[in-house]
Amino acid sequence: MKGIEKSLTEEYLYLDFSHQTEGCIFPLHTSVTVFLLLYCDCKIFKVCLVLTRESTEISLIRNVLPQDVETQMISREELPPIVQNCCLPAVVERPGNFCRAGLAVVLRYIIQKSYEADPSKKEMLELLGFKKTCLKACAEVSQWTRLCELTIPLAIENFLRESSEQPSAIPVEILQLEKKLSEPVRVHNDDKLRRQKLKQQKAAGVGLSLGKDEAKSKVCNQETSEELDSPSKSLELEVAFSKLTAQEEPVTANRESHIRKAKASDLPPSGARVAEGFTHVADIVLCPVFIIFALVIICKRHSEKLVEFPLLASWYHRIQEVPKVKTTASKCGIQFLELPELLTTSNEQHPSEVLGAEEQNDPSFIGGPRPTMTKLMKKGIEVMFSPHPCPTWTLDWNNLPAAVSPKEGKMSSDRALRKQQQLNNLVYMVKNQARPGDRIVDFCSGGGHVGIVLAHMLPSCQVTLIENKELSLVRAKKRSDELGLSNIWFIQANMEYFTGMFNIGVALHACGVATDMVIEHCIKMRASFVTCPCCYGFIQNTSKFNFPKSEQFKEALSYKEHMILCRFADQTAAQLPPQRRLIGKQCMCLVDLDRARAAEERGYSVQVMSMEPESCSPKNNMIVGVPI
Ligand SMILES: *[C@@H]1O[C@H](CO)[C@@H](O)[C@H](O)[C@H]1NC(C)=O
C-alpha cells in the first residue's frame, strides 16, 4: 500500500549550478546539500541541477555530482512555477503546490526524510540537534542560522572568486567566527538578558496581554520569536559552539556548569557527551565549507595563517573523526589535508569575568512612556488613527464552507468569533485593493486562517502562504485540500527566500520585527500591504532594521525612548486597568505611526487604523499601505 501511495507523488530537489572549481560546486549551497544527501545516503529525491545564466558549457558538467546521486540538468525556465518564485535549494512534490525553500529548511527536510525512510538510522535525526530545533529559526533572528545560511557561504564564495587571481586576505567573517567561538559565555549572557527582559515584561503585565488568541498567533510566528523567548535556542547554540572549541577544559567545564545552572530541564540528555560529538547539522553544513576554505588557504600557501584560527583548525581535525565524514567528503571529491598538529593557544581570559557585566536592571522603563509621548507631541507627532472605511462589514460566515472558517480548528467559540472579526477587517482591506489576476501573499501564514479565506473569496487571484513552520503549513494545506482550492500555493521558507512578484502582502499578527520584514518585502516589490502587528515588546534593532525607522521619529526620539513605547505598547490586555490599556493602545499607535512614516518616505500612502470591533484582539492595529 505504502509503496503505491509513494509512487503517486514524486519529490524533486532543485539545486543551483553555476560552475565548479577545486572540487566544489557553486553556489556553495549546492555543495553543502549534495554533501548531506551523500552523508544521509538519501535516494528519495529526484535531483535537478538548475543552470544559472553564466553556466553555458553543458558538456563540461556531465560528471559534476558523485555517481551516487542521479541528476538531470534543467534550465531555469523548466522549473515548476512555484519553484521559480523561490530561492534554491528547494524541494517540491509533483504534482503539488507545496514547496520547501532555502538551505536550512531543505537540509532539515532531507534529514527528516532520510530518517523516515530508514528509522534504524537514529543518528540522522540527531543531526537536527537537541529538541530537533537546529536551524529552525530563520536567519533574521538566529545568528547561527544566519551564519550557516548566509554569512559564511558568501564569504567563502567571495574568497574563492578573488583568490583565483592573487592571494587575498582572510575573510573577516572567518576571523569573526573564530572570535565568536572563543567567547561562548556571551551567548549565555544574551540569553540571560533576554530572560530578564521577559521577566520584566511579565512583571509589567506584558505576559497578561497575551490573551488566548495572541498566544496562539505567537505560535504561528514563532520562528521570529523563538530565539527571544526560549532559552533552549540559546542552549542549542551554546552546545554547538562548545563542540567547536579546541580545549575541553577548563573552558568547557566552566561553561557546562553555567548551562547546568541555567536550567537543568533544558539540558540535552547528556550535555557533556553531546558537547564532544558532532551531532549537529550545523557541523555538517559548515563541514564542506570549511574544508574547502582550509583547502584553499593551504593551496595558496597560507598555512602559517592557520595559527590565527586555533578553534576552527581544531574543528577541522575533529570533524574528520566523525563516522562517514571522510568517506562522504571523498565521494564529493574533497580530500582532507594533513595539517600540522597545532599548538592551540587558548585564550586564557576567564569567560566568567564577562558574566555579570550586564546584569544591572535597566532603569529606563521606570518613568513610563509619558515623557516620551510629550516629547513626540512637541514635535507635532500625536496619537491619531485613520477612520475605518467600513466598520460594520462582515463576511457571511454562516454560509461559507466549514473549512474556510477558523471554527475548524480547536478553538473555543469565543476565540473563533474574535478571529472571524479580525479576518473581516483584513479581508475587507484586501478585497478593496485586489484586481482579478492579482497575486496575494499571506506572510507568517501559520495554519492559514487569512490565506484560505482570501483564496476562497477571491478565486481570480493567486494566493501564496509563506510560513517557516512545517506543521502549521501542512495543516493549512490539509484545510485547503478539503476545500478543493486551486489558486493557492504553500511555501515553507523564510519570507526572504520568496522572490516572486506580488501585488498585495498580508500579515495577521506577525510578531515583533516580522511585521517590519513583511512591510520591507512589500515595499521592495512595490506591493500594497495590510498588516496587523503584535508582540511590540520584541521589537529591537536587527541586522536590517534600526528603530525608530522614520526620519520624523529619529529626530524626536532616541533608540531607548522608542523602546519604551514598544514595551508599553504590549500592555493592552483586557485584564489590565482601562487607564493602562489606553496608554498601551496609544503607544501601539505611535510605534505603528513610525512604521507608517518610514513607508511614506519610500513612496507609499499609509494609514494606521483600528480593527473593528476593537475587542476582536488586544493587538487590534492595522497598518495599510498603498504605493503611490
Ligand atoms: C539601534 O539603532 C539606532 C539607530 O542606528 C542606534 O542609534 C542605536 O544605538 C541602536 N541600538 C542598539 C541597542 O543597537
UniProtKB/TrEMBL annotation:
Keywords: Cytoplasm. GO terms for cellular component: cytoplasm. It comes from the Eukaryota. Gene3D superfamilies: Vaccinia Virus protein VP39. Its main location: cytoplasm. Pfam families: Methyltransf_32. InterPro entries: Methyltranfer_dom, SAM-dependent_MTases_sf. Coiled coil: none annotated. The keyword Cytoplasm applies. It is found in: Cytoplasm. Residues 418-540 form the Methyltransferase domain. One of its GO terms (biological process) is respiratory system development. Belongs to the GSTCD family. This is Glutathione S-transferase C-terminal domain-containing protein. It comes from Loxodonta africana (African elephant).
